[in-house]
Automatic annotation (TrEMBL):
<comment type="subunit">
    <text>Homotetramer.</text>
</comment>
<keyword id="KW-0808">Transferase</keyword>
<dbReference type="Pfam" id="PF04607">
    <property type="entry name" value="RelA_SpoT"/>
</dbReference>
<protein>
    <submittedName>
        <fullName>GTP pyrophosphokinase</fullName>
    </submittedName>
</protein>
<keyword id="KW-0067">ATP-binding</keyword>
<dbReference type="InterPro" id="IPR007685">
    <property type="entry name" value="RelA_SpoT"/>
</dbReference>
<dbReference type="GO" id="GO:0016301">
    <property type="term" value="F:kinase activity"/>
</dbReference>
<comment type="pathway">
    <text>Purine metabolism; ppGpp biosynthesis; ppGpp from GTP: step 1/2.</text>
</comment>
<feature type="domain" description="RelA/SpoT">
    <location>
        <begin position="44"/>
        <end position="165"/>
    </location>
</feature>
<keyword id="KW-0547">Nucleotide-binding</keyword>
<dbReference type="GO" id="GO:0015970">
    <property type="term" value="P:guanosine tetraphosphate biosynthetic process"/>
</dbReference>
<dbReference type="InterPro" id="IPR052366">
    <property type="entry name" value="GTP_Pyrophosphokinase"/>
</dbReference>
<keyword id="KW-0418">Kinase</keyword>
<dbReference type="InterPro" id="IPR043519">
    <property type="entry name" value="NT_sf"/>
</dbReference>
<comment type="similarity">
    <text>Belongs to the RelA/SpoT family.</text>
</comment>
<dbReference type="GO" id="GO:0005524">
    <property type="term" value="F:ATP binding"/>
</dbReference>
Length: 210
């Protein structure tokens, strides 16, 4: 490949910016509609070159097949309050005409051995570049705030231990993942109460601003 990494990653940067903007726009539409807002916040990133290189080595992916075999170079993460919100977002993504789903992985129903939970959707997204349209793969991860809390901490520890956790720590992390999932269940059980309070709160905020 004669292209530099910067050239190669340019359409991925554009993909992340555009998909992120679209989910933020969706959030705004929910806010305007006075319905429950299933999106808490959205983040996005292009996988750093050293992580791409590490994954290429681990997965034996050669450079010619990089854009086809590595699905998460462009990544967008959507955080939700409730587990049901995740599935609502999934349904909305399935209906969209501006991105095409190529794979779905439900790590909520089928948690990873680490304890990791999230819903992953791989989409093919058309970006308009100077040289024409390019179809870019992007991974959308949808998770609750509790799942995100666990995954963020586990990710930092993983970096420190390079995936080789001491057994006691691994067990503790698995237990923490279950505690986070219990928290999601408890929050679902009192969901109506929470939503009533939130709509009262936003109504009051709306009034004090005027
Ligand atoms: P980053 O910094 O989040 O981008 P693989 O990458 O080989 O593990 P695969 O099949 O390519 O897996 O994709 P998968 O499992 O659908 O998604 C990989 C991404 O999901 C990871 O990206 C993480 O973001 C997240 N993930 C998957 N399993 C775990 C886990 O056990 N703990 C945490 N914290 N996150 C996980 P990267 O590349 O690790 O990094």
């Amino acid at each position: 490949m004669t292209k530099t990494w910067d050239d190669f990653l340019l359409p991925y940067e554009q993909t992340v910016l555009e998909i992120k903007a679209k989910f933020l726009a969706l959030k705004k539409q929910f806010e305007r509609s006075q319905k429950h807002v299933p999106i808490e916040f959205v983040v996005g990133r292009v996988k750093p070159v050293d992580s791409i290189a590490e994954k290429m080595q681990r997965r034996k992916i050669n450079r010619e097949r990089l854009a086809i075999d590595m699905e998460d170079i462009a990544g967008v993460r959507i955080m939700c309050q409730f587990v049901d919100d995740i599935y609502q977002i999934v349904k909305l993504i399935r209906k969209r005409k501006d991105m095409h789903i190529v794979d779905e992985r439900d790590y909520i129903l089928n948690k990873k051995p680490s304890g990791y939970r999230s819903y992953h959707i791989v989409v093919e997204y058309p970006v308009q570049m100077l040289e024409g349209q390019k179809n870019i793969l992007a991974e959308i991860q949808i998770r609750t705030l509790a799942m995100n809390f666990w995954a963020t901490i586990e990710h930092s520890l993983n970096y420190k231990y390079q995936g080789e956790f001491p057994e006691a720590l691994e067990t503790r992390l698995q237990r923490a993942a279950e505690a986070a999932f219990q928290l999601d269940k408890e929050m679902t059980a009192i969901r109506e109460e929470i939503q009533e309070a939130q709509s009262l709160f936003s109504y009051k905020r709306g009034h004090t601003k005027e």
